[in-house]
Amino acid sequence: MAGPSTVDDYLAQLPERPRKALEKLRGQVEKLAPDTTQSISYQMPTFKYRGRALLGFAAFKDHCSLFPYSKGVLETLEQELEPFDTSGKGTIRFTAEKPLPAALVKKIVKVRIGEIEERNPRP
Fold first, then answer.
1. By C-alpha distance, which of 112, 101, 103, 102 is closest to 75?
2. Nearest alpha carbon to residue 83 among 73, 71, 105, 98
């Protein structure tokens, strides 16, 4: 069975609560990083910036996850991320009932954009 081909398809298949939480997160990232594109990568929605993965997100049975594709984000924002379950590989878990605060999402996006720009400076 083929997975979703668009972010909208991915979100449409979710139950209401995680769908609404991820739609809100998606809207936040769209506003914070308007120069991104959205696609499905590894069967989950992914924002790309300058052709590189900026963030991915997904819903699971008991939680949602944000994937900043960077251990550096977890290290830089360690204190702000304490209320959330994280993995050393760069996953931030949250629930629909306790979503990531907008201020934290803003910091995550800012750190990731900075990392990508540092690796790939504009000419």
1. 112
2. 98
The pTM score is 0.93
Bridge partners, 35 (sequence order): none
Task: State pLDDT tens for residues 67-78.
Answer: 999 999 999 999
pLDDT tens digits, residue range 1-44?
Answer: 568 999 999 999 999 999 999 999 999 999 999 999 999 998 99
Give burial (CB, 10 Å; 0-12/13-18/19+) of 39: middle
> Which domains occur in the chain, in start order?
7-114 (3.90.1150.200)
